[in-house]
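During the reporting period the student researcher (J.K.) took over the structure-prediction task from the postdoctoral fellow and processed the backlog of single-chain submissions. One of the processed entries is reproduced below for the supervisory committee.
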Amino acid sequence: MALSAELDTAPDTIEATLNYIVDDGTKVFTVTAGPGGQDVRSGGTPDLRRMVIHNGRPYARGFALERDGFRFVQHDTKVADFFDEAEIKRVYYPEMETLIKAESGAKRVVVFDHTLRTADDELRESKKIREVVRRVHNDYTEWSGPQRVRDLLPDEAEELLKRRFAIIQVWRPIRHPVETYPLAIADARTLSPDNLVISERRYPNRIGQTYAITYNPAHKWFWFPRMRRDEALVFKVFDSMKDGRARWTAHTAFEDPTTPPHARPRESIEIRTLAFF
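J.K. obtained the following structure tokens:
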């Protein structure tokens, strides 16, 4: 079966260096680059830590969005060319809306953004896409989650914000199995609010916020070796409910010690959605 196809070859655990941050009191921010460029990060002190990362494939069916913050799913797509923006919006957006409704139980899902990333500098520049993010982070904060609803659905926002909503993302490879810079994701139960450091994202037309993450030895990390195009990681980066369920998921690209020589650079897409319940 696809979920277990890599079980025989990948190790149960690996050790890799993850890039955390020390909250040293300086303002943390990222100046976002234009298409094909590279973001510039500033503030805080980098904190490189060797961490054990667990192979999530043996446990794939046991992860729960509300408990662990993520789900690993077999999910094919009819998109022929992920470098065709019009096809992504026409084909992939509806596929993701359906997937997230099924995985989360949301009544309404609004896809509002997607990002293509690659670890290949030449491809990044030629296709005008983004680099992989090699710092532990969560994409929204207590402020920027609701603010995204106000930005995107201004006429409905105040009514929508009276009820539960979440920001749910989906990540997948777009061509080849992932051989370099896979995505690691931490069990949400091991992430403390004390680990969250506000980091500004400065765009030409607005200011956003994400969380940079400080080191915590309790963090339990997972990765899914050699993820393929017909596999996807569904994960939560904001939830308005504060009842003990998963609200954030720390995640990062990392340098995989099992990467083979002459590996193909990672190419991936992440999609961002507002999910209303």
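The committee noted the following: Confidence is low (pLDDT under 50) at residues 1-5.
J.K. will present the remaining backlog at the next meeting.
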